[in-house]
Protein backbone atom coordinates (compact mmCIF):
# COMPACT_ATOMS: atom_id res chain seq x y z
CA UNK A 1 0.00 0.00 0.00
CA UNK A 2 2.93 2.30 0.68
CA UNK A 3 4.12 1.83 -2.90
CA UNK A 4 0.68 2.86 -4.15
CA UNK A 5 0.77 6.13 -2.22
CA UNK A 6 4.27 6.83 -3.53
CA UNK A 7 2.98 6.14 -7.05
CA UNK A 8 -0.02 8.42 -6.36
CA UNK A 9 2.29 11.25 -5.32
CA UNK A 10 4.34 10.70 -8.46
CA UNK A 11 1.22 10.85 -10.63
CA UNK A 12 0.07 14.09 -8.97
CA UNK A 13 3.51 15.69 -9.24
CA UNK A 14 3.71 14.66 -12.91
CA UNK A 15 0.27 16.13 -13.53
CA UNK A 16 1.24 19.43 -11.97
CA UNK A 17 4.53 19.47 -13.88
CA UNK A 18 2.73 18.71 -17.16
CA UNK A 19 0.21 21.47 -16.50
CA UNK A 20 2.93 24.03 -15.79
CA UNK A 21 4.83 23.13 -18.95
CA UNK A 22 1.87 22.67 -21.31
CA UNK A 23 -0.74 25.19 -20.19
CA UNK A 24 1.14 28.46 -19.82
CA UNK A 25 -1.01 31.56 -19.84
CA UNK A 26 -4.19 30.11 -18.37
CA UNK A 27 -6.46 32.28 -16.27
CA UNK A 28 -6.98 31.67 -12.55
CA UNK A 29 -10.25 29.78 -13.00
CA UNK A 30 -8.71 27.50 -15.64
CA UNK A 31 -5.88 26.67 -13.24
CA UNK A 32 -8.48 26.05 -10.54
CA UNK A 33 -10.40 23.70 -12.82
CA UNK A 34 -7.16 21.89 -13.68
CA UNK A 35 -6.37 21.55 -9.96
CA UNK A 36 -9.83 20.13 -9.24
CA UNK A 37 -9.33 17.73 -12.14
CA UNK A 38 -6.05 16.44 -10.69
CA UNK A 39 -7.41 16.15 -7.16
CA UNK A 40 -10.52 14.32 -8.37
CA UNK A 41 -8.31 11.89 -10.28
CA UNK A 42 -6.27 11.24 -7.13
CA UNK A 43 -9.43 10.74 -5.07
CA UNK A 44 -10.87 8.34 -7.66
CA UNK A 45 -7.71 6.25 -7.85
CA UNK A 46 -7.39 6.22 -4.06
CA UNK A 47 -10.99 5.07 -3.65
CA UNK A 48 -10.66 2.29 -6.22
CA UNK A 49 -7.34 0.89 -5.01
CA UNK A 50 -8.26 1.10 -1.32
CA UNK A 51 -11.56 -0.65 -1.98
CA UNK A 52 -9.81 -3.43 -3.89
CA UNK A 53 -7.20 -3.90 -1.15
CA UNK A 54 -9.96 -4.16 1.46
CA UNK A 55 -11.79 -6.73 -0.67
CA UNK A 56 -14.75 -4.49 -1.48
CA UNK A 57 -15.00 -5.22 -5.20
CA UNK A 58 -18.51 -3.78 -5.58
CA UNK A 59 -17.44 -0.53 -3.94
CA UNK A 60 -14.45 -0.31 -6.29
CA UNK A 61 -16.71 -0.88 -9.30
CA UNK A 62 -19.24 1.72 -8.22
CA UNK A 63 -16.43 4.16 -7.47
CA UNK A 64 -15.08 3.58 -10.95
CA UNK A 65 -18.46 4.27 -12.52
CA UNK A 66 -19.41 7.28 -10.43
CA UNK A 67 -16.06 8.99 -9.85
CA UNK A 68 -14.72 8.02 -13.27
CA UNK A 69 -17.85 9.45 -14.89
CA UNK A 70 -17.42 12.71 -13.01
CA UNK A 71 -13.75 12.75 -14.05
CA UNK A 72 -14.72 12.41 -17.71
CA UNK A 73 -17.23 15.24 -17.33
CA UNK A 74 -14.52 17.42 -15.73
CA UNK A 75 -12.16 16.61 -18.60
CA UNK A 76 -14.78 17.59 -21.17
CA UNK A 77 -15.50 20.85 -19.33
CA UNK A 78 -11.78 21.63 -19.06
CA UNK A 79 -11.04 21.07 -22.73
CA UNK A 80 -14.31 22.57 -24.08
CA UNK A 81 -15.01 25.50 -21.80
CA UNK A 82 -11.48 26.08 -20.50
CA UNK A 83 -9.97 25.81 -23.99
CA UNK A 84 -6.36 25.58 -22.79
CA UNK A 85 -4.97 25.21 -26.31
CA UNK A 86 -6.63 28.37 -27.70
CA UNK A 87 -4.07 30.50 -25.88
CA UNK A 88 -1.23 28.81 -27.76
CA UNK A 89 -2.88 28.68 -31.18
CA UNK A 90 -4.24 32.25 -31.08
CA UNK A 91 -0.70 33.70 -31.08
CA UNK A 92 -0.10 32.56 -34.66
CA UNK A 93 -3.67 32.94 -35.86
CA UNK A 94 -3.75 34.57 -39.28
CA UNK A 95 0.01 34.85 -39.47
CA UNK A 96 2.31 33.12 -41.88
CA UNK A 97 4.96 31.34 -39.87
CA UNK A 98 8.15 30.63 -41.78
CA UNK A 99 10.62 28.03 -40.67
From TrEMBL:
It comes from the Bacteria. The chain crosses the membrane at residues 31-53, 60-81. Keywords: Membrane, Transmembrane, Transmembrane helix. This is Reductive dehalogenase anchoring protein. It comes from Desulfosporosinus orientis (strain ATCC 19365 / DSM 765 / NCIMB 8382 / VKM B-1628 / Singapore I).
Amino acid sequence: MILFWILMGTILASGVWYGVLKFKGLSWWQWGLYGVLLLWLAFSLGWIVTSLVEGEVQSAGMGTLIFGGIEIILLIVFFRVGKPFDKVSSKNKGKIVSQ
